[in-house]
Amino acid sequence: MRLAFAASWVIAVAAPAVLHAEEPAENAQQARARADALVAKMTLEEKLSLVHGLFPPMAAGKTDQELIPSAGHIDGIPRLGIPTVRESDASLGVANQVEQRKGDVATALPSGLATAASFDPEIAHAGGAMIGAEARAKRFNVLLAGGVNLTRDPWNGRNFEYLGEDPLLAGEMAGAAISGVQSNHIVSTIKHFALNSQETGRMVLDARIDEAALRMSDLLAFEIGIERGNPASVMCAYNQVNGDYACESKHLLTDILKTDWGYPGWVMSDWGAVHSTVKAANAGLDQESGQELDKQIYFGAPLKAAVADGKVREARLDDMVARYLTGLISSGAFDHPVPAKAQKIDYAAHAEVARRAAEAGIVLLKNEGDLLPLSGVKKIAVIGGHADVGVLSGGGSSQVRSVGGAPIEIPLGSGAASSFARITYHASSPLDALRKAMPGIQITFVDQRDVEGAKKAAAEADVAIVFAVQWTTEAQDAVNLSLPYHQDDLISAVAAAQPHTIAVLETGGPVTMPWIDKVPAVVEAWYPGQRGGEAIADILTGKANPSGRLPITFPVSASQAPRPEPVGLDKLNSLEAQAAANPADASDYQLKSYPVDYVEGANVGYRWYEQQREKPLFPFGHGLSYTSFAYRNAQASGGKVPSVTFDVVNTGKRKGAVVPQLYVKRDGSDSPMRLAAFQRVTLKPGETRKVTLTAEPRIVADYDTALPGWRIAGGTYTLALANDAEDRSRTFTVTLESATMKP
Ligand code: BGC
User: Fold this and answer.
1) Top mutation candidate among 89, 92, 149, 293 for ligand 1, by most atoms within 8 Å of CB
2) Residues 397-425: tens digit of each pLDDT
């Protein structure tokens, strides 16, 4: 069948048969031509069958094809060689939430935020390529990955899945991860388009922001991610944006994504994010995902009726299908079907990918008196965080059942996440890894509940290492930025007993640190994934030199952030309490739509803190090393785009990586400085490398809705060659020519 199809296609469209995911710009047109030729052969029923997908947990009996328990399934059309699509979540590995597929494990990367902290697109690409390889071996060909929503709020429950607060960093890292996935000839999405910036009220809230600010922040992250990664699909978000649901926003889906950006692939909805047939289809939604989760199957019978009475033109339905096929063809999923049977996976090799990512993303926040790396110690007290059994992971659809299993798995009693999230640890014990790395050293462990025991063990040891955890999950926001379970008190108590105390944090994002002045060393390990314990031990012992940089600002307190708490949380809590008290009428107590005003506009994260003149606890871009670096002979230039050329020198005694960052600001504007370029550089002791950082032009520009497009105003600009968003120790003035760029 496939051969017959291929032959007829060759006659119809004279183009090469094998299309590579890495060069879709040229092949998008060829892919579209093939897609159009296929659509021309389809019946109306066949077309309709491709624009809505099943949710396997609720779809038993709806297809004769094998349903793999996962997020999504769309039957293929064998007579036309159109493959069956099997969709899995895959932000951090091939997901297997609440162990839908009994015993099916996969390699778990560290959180997205940890990968972002590497500031290294190659790390992101390697992670994506690994996930894609496992997915293909498990017979998935569409991965729900590429989460690139900017961190607008430090307490967002899904920050761990995303790539931080900066549009350039997040876009570059998302693009690299996506192209890694798609190098396996399968599809990756980029999600959630757009402004799904908090989990509280995510199904109903109306995110409000002005157009220019949106283009210069969240949309820019998507735009860069799409350019770099060529995802075959874009997933639209649950929330509303400026009054329309994201999955029925013509402005977002058609005017911006498909017209301004010329996006050739298909828009799939998030699961349960569709609210209409005609409005959504005409706005640019191409496929309804997880149809059983919507109030009705909007893109089934109602779409057929809408086409029949002309409310949705058949040409639009053809376009929906052609976009879907274009994505499958250009990614290679069409021409390289997944194997008929699950294949063996080299988990040992993939664990190394996870370990490298964890090591590159761990951030050494503080290291007074060079307490780290550990040396000359004989007795260590390891305290808390279940460090004796494993490392924490984030909850929700991205949850991977990792190789080695889940030594701790705690179901939730209530709340929006309770149906699909459990507090889950990966079997990678930092305690075991430390013992292995430091034979002959006495290492004791005390559980976090035993505060007196912890104090005693700390006092008797040469060094205390306190592990502190903050679990976060999709569908809920962190209620505040404090470490839960009295861990702040635990850290303070241990630090009072032992001056050489190191805090190791496994958190979804920023937390407050009321004990910061009492603790000489702090390591942010994020959710470090399936080899997190080993990676933490490597960093603590100095086998690995810390090189992560914060992709997100750590505020002193939540009150410094644009919004001190999740908008609508009070309302949600009160409705949940009323529903619990009146179970028979629970459906009367549903959250209704409400606005969330993103008053910070494009000044997300570090830009907000600079604009407000607030000094955070740790700035964006910050991270220490066990070696030292210098930037020498820097020369800046202007003209069309600014750049700085300089020598980076490792002036210390260990091999290490540094991330020089270029920030830019137009003189006289009231806009804060923006990250315009960065590069991770690894150097041996004494080694020098010449580096040029060239600004991304859209970071230098402002978006002008009247133009419409990007505008660089001619004049002088200040550049900072910096180690973090606050560092202004090397500044330059350059003159730029005025220029405009298409939207
Ligand atoms: C999430 C998506 C995910 C989808 C399918 C939704 O709840 O927002 O990120 O891909 O479920 O599991």
Assistant:
1) 89
2) 999 999 999 999 999 998 899 999 999 99
The 10s digit of each residue's pLDDT in 227-241 is 999 999 999 999 999
Q: How far apart are the first and last CA of the chain?
A: 43
The DSSP letter of residue 266 is: E
Which of helix, strand or coil describes residue 98? Answer: helix
716 contacts: CB under 8 Å, gap ≥ 6: 666, 667, 733, 734, 735, 736
pLDDT value, residue 47? 98
Q: Is the pLDDT of residue 22 over 90?
A: no
**Predicted confidence (pLDDT) at residue 349 exceeds the cutoff of 80:** yes
Query: Looking at residue 414, what is its pLDDT?
Result: 87
Distance of CA 244 to the CA centre of its chain: 24
Is-contact 232 328, C-beta < 8 A?
yes
Question: Which CA distances in Å does 446 have to 9, 148, 194, 217, 424?
Answer: 67, 38, 44, 45, 20
Q: What are the tens digits of pLDDT across the range 288-312?
A: 999 999 999 999 999 999 999 999 9
| Tens of pLDDT, residues 602-612 | 999 999 999 99
What is the rounded (10 degree) CA torsion for 369, 373, 377, 379?
A: 110
397 C-beta closer than 6 A to ligand 1: yes
Written as one string, the DSSP assignment of 17-54 is S---TT-HHHHHHHHHHHHHHHHTT--HHHHHHTSB-B
Q: Which atom of ligand 1 is nearest to the CA of 397?
A: 12
Q: Is 488 exposed, middle or buried (0-12, 13-18, 19+ CB in 10 A)?
A: middle
Q: How far apart are CA 457 and CA 383, in angstroms?
A: 9
What residue's CA is closest to ligand 1, atom 2? 270
Q: Is 161 in the pocket of ligand 1 (CB under 6 A)?
A: no
- Cβ of 620: how many Cβ atoms within 10 Å? 26
Beta-ladder partners of 144: 89
Rounded to the nearest 10 degrees, the angle between the axes of helix 347-361 and helix 532-541 is 50
Angstrom distance (rounded) from CA 614 to CA 45: 59
Q: How far apart are CA 55 and CA 37, in angstroms?
A: 29
Identity of the amino acid at 57 = P
Q: How far is CA 510 from CA 26, 156, 477, 525, 555, in A?
A: 41, 10, 13, 11, 7
Rounded Cα gap, residues 536 and 504, in angstroms: 8
Whether ligand 1 lies within 6 angstroms of the CB of 89 is answered as yes
**In terms of C-beta density within 10 A (0-12 exposed, 13-18 middle, 19 or more buried), how is residue 297 classed?**
middle
**How many C-beta atoms lie closer than 10 Å to residue 66's C-beta?**
10
Instruction: Give CA angle at 258 (699, 41), nearest 5°.
Output: 150
- The amino acid at residue 419 is S
**Best substitution site from 397, 399, 400, 418 to test ligand 1's pocket, by max atoms within 8 Å of Cβ?**
397
Please give the distance of CA 686 from its chain centroid, rounded to a whole number. 35
- Nearest 5°: the CA angle 164, 241, 73 is 75
